[in-house]
Design brief:
Number of strands: 12
Order of helices and strands: EHHEEEHEEEEHEHEEEH
Shape: globular
Low-confidence stretches: none
Structural class: alpha/beta
Mean pLDDT: 92
Largest sheet: 8 strands, mixed
Length: 219
């Protein structure tokens, strides 16, 4: 798998990352969502350089302009609900893409530190021969990303697969690296070193879904 860790180079992206991690700024949900969206835009720009382009002639009021435009048929798939702000950032740049949505959550059994990933809702167009961008803001254990991809397989075989995350743990990166093909790309804003005993990224930022949309009742 090709891993593109954007935090390895200094850029404005660091400002957005710092704010979504900061406990004093996280209380502003609108700002948190917007920063996740902006990170999605930065990741989209960097990712776009690896896509296929084809020449096009554009007619201006004064003549003809030659340029190259993205030729991939793109499908954006995000994991609800935390993935919505990241999805919006991607869609701001890949605005002609088709869209897919899936719900995946951790189901804890008797042991609160053990869980399985449950997929309950899925809406997806055909993926056959298309470029799939699979987005999940927090790549903790990597199990949600893998479970989502398994659920998408009946919809066809993509030409290319790009995974997009905001923050990941090294264990999660290793997990998806072992489950996706060598030609898969991972675009990520930062990779943290460890996971907690409950499978949360450390230092991470907390629960992205709760920070974006408010606390949820547990069931």
């Amino acid at each position: 798998m090709h891993i593109h860790n954007l935090s390895q180079e200094d850029s404005i992206l660091n400002s957005f990352l710092s704010e979504i991690r900061d406990v004093n700024i996280q209380t502003d949900r609108m700002r948190f969502r917007r920063n996740i969206e902006r990170i999605g835009e930065v990741l989209s720009y960097e990712m776009s350089k690896s896509l296929d382009f084809a020449p096009k002639t554009t007619t201006t009021p004064l003549g003809k302009s030659q340029t190259k435009l993205i030729s991939d048929d793109i499908v954006l798939c995000s994991i609800l609900r935390a993935g919505v702000p990241l999805h919006n950032g991607l869609l701001n740049y890949f605005d002609t893409a088709e869209n897919a949505f899936i719900s995946a959550y951790r189901h804890h059994k008797e042991n609160p530190e053990a869980f399985e990933i449950i997929v309950e809702y899925l809406a997806c167009p055909s993926l056959e021969g298309k470029t799939l961008i699979l987005a999940d803001p927090m790549l903790a254990t990597g199990q949600s990303m893998v479970a989502t991809f398994e659920a998408l397989k009946p919809f066809g075989t993509p030409k290319e697969i790009h995974l997009v995350s905001v923050i990941g743990a090294q264990d999660g990166v290793n997990f998806v690296n072992n489950h996706f093909g060598k030609d898969t790309h991972l675009w990520i804003a930062a990779i943290d070193k460890t996971l907690s005993d409950k499978g949360y990224i450390v230092p991470g930022l907390g629960d992205a879904g709760d920070l974006a949309f408010g606390n949820k009742l547990q069931h």
